[in-house]
Amino acid sequence: MTLFIDIVALVALIAVIIWFCELFTNAIEWTGKKLGLNEGAVGSVLAAVGTALPETVVPLIALVGGWLAGHKAGGAVAEGAIVGAPFMLATLAMFVTGVAVIVYTRRGRRTAVIAVNSTVMGRDLTTFLVTFVAAIGVSFLPVIQLGPVTLKQLAALPFLAAYGFYVARTLADEGEMEGDLHPLTFDGNRSEPRGGIVALQVIVALLGIVVTAHFFVERLQHLAEIVQLNPLILSLLITPIATELPEKLNSVLWIGARKDTLALGNLTGAMVFQTCIPMAVGMALTPWVLSPSSLLAAGLTVLASGLMIIQLKVRGELTPTGLLAGGAFYLMFAAGLFTFRLW
Length: 343
Known about the structure:
- The chain is mainly alpha-helical.
- It has a single domain (39-178, 234-339), classed as A middle domain of Talin 1, CATH 1.20.1420.30.
- The chain is built from 12 helices and 2 strands, in the order ααααββαααααααα.
- A two-stranded antiparallel sheet has the order 1-2.
- The two termini are 33 Å apart.
- The mean pLDDT is 86.
């Protein structure tokens, strides 16, 4: 009976998360219009940071708390979570988005052509790949003391600067929002809702996503205990799926609305953010020595994002098949974990 209750609760929580994601996508589009931003800035900066923030806050708070307390307990776990976030986005999230394109195409709601802004996607993926490879490279640096800080801690600064430069470039692009805007949910009777109401809806949506996702993860962990699931499988393969749920669902909703730059930018922008900000904090507050499982995830992330860049450069577009390849890289990670016992 408990198992049945957990399953029903998970399905109900997913439905609630979807509703909050719809609130968020609706409000963030109106935010972009109010601020006069282009589709790249809305998808790759506003939406990406907004939906990446919930799962980013947890390891960062753990790191900062441990640092303030004068110890580095849990640092390895936090490092794994920090590296795992871009891995999940580059593999499983892209796979889910590719599946969404195929499903919506078969239902006649769109075509199989993924119409993205190649400038936005190219910048996102290139920035991500360069900064991500550099961040992984920093983990191999020796411990060298440079006055009050180490070389690794000093290396965090360029990543913060890189993100600032990336945001500035993205905001400076010219362009408009994709497609038509649906009326604001919280103020549906107005053709031009007030800025305060738009901001309120963004805040409510984000808080709803954070709280609901928290309960979802808790219920998932309880279900895993009932079926006696290996804690390793839960922490490395299943829980990350739940924590990345907002990005996946937001992108699926935008794919259905044929707003492809918003959908993909939501993921690629989050990948850049996850690399430049959380990884910089990891370098500053932990030894930043990555475990074998983290290095495996990092290598597959590089391959997955590199494949998308090649596809974009050669074909000038992203295809559903190319996005589906992300699922293969995720399966490779799972196979590698248990084949080489990387824990």
